[in-house]
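We treat protein structure as text, and this decision shapes the records that our systems exchange. We quote a single record here, exactly as it is kept in our systems:
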Amino acid sequence: MTWSVLIPVASVVIGWALGILSQQLSDERNQKRSRGRLLAKLILLEGQISTARKAMSHLKQIDLSASEREGVRAKMLQRHFMEGPTSLDALLPLIDESAAATPIASVRLLSIIELLSKHKKTTLREMASADRNIYDRHLAIHEAGLVALHKEIRGICRAYSLRFSVFSYIGLEMRFFKSERNFKKSKNLVSIIGADYSDLLREDFSDSRA
């Protein structure tokens, strides 16, 4: 076989290989962008879970009936938890995009997101109206489940951040550390959830006492 034949063949093979490499690099960039968008939303979601836990903890310190407490707790989760950028509609497409590169992690994340969605929709109003002790027991179970899911979300955030860089991981750990420190420093419900939640609190008091 002469050079006049080998050179065109080699050119075709090299061009084909470069095309495949270019496509792979493009796919990796797109997947990294998708994981980055997903990680950003998961960090926001983790912050919402942390705030919800703090709020529910301090809500117990306010002198309320079980029905009043449940009314505030349920509306707080419905309006300000897994909404906007952390809603199911926002998260599911990004999880689906990431599934091609990380199928096992995506399945795990999907199951956690679905459980969080159920937590958001859970209401204990009937139990709160019937018996305070029963309500307190079920609320404790509900909160324990949220704590466990919070740990899972943090673990997934850590795993995704490591796919970017060690610096991303360190930055995330610093965020978690500050969140835990602020949890211990928070003194009341308003300091945690702000004026928007304060309005919701007054609204629910008015509804339940009307």
Summary: Residues 3-59 form the longest helix (57 residues). The CA atoms of residues 119 and 145 lie 8 Å apart. The chain has a mean pLDDT of 78.
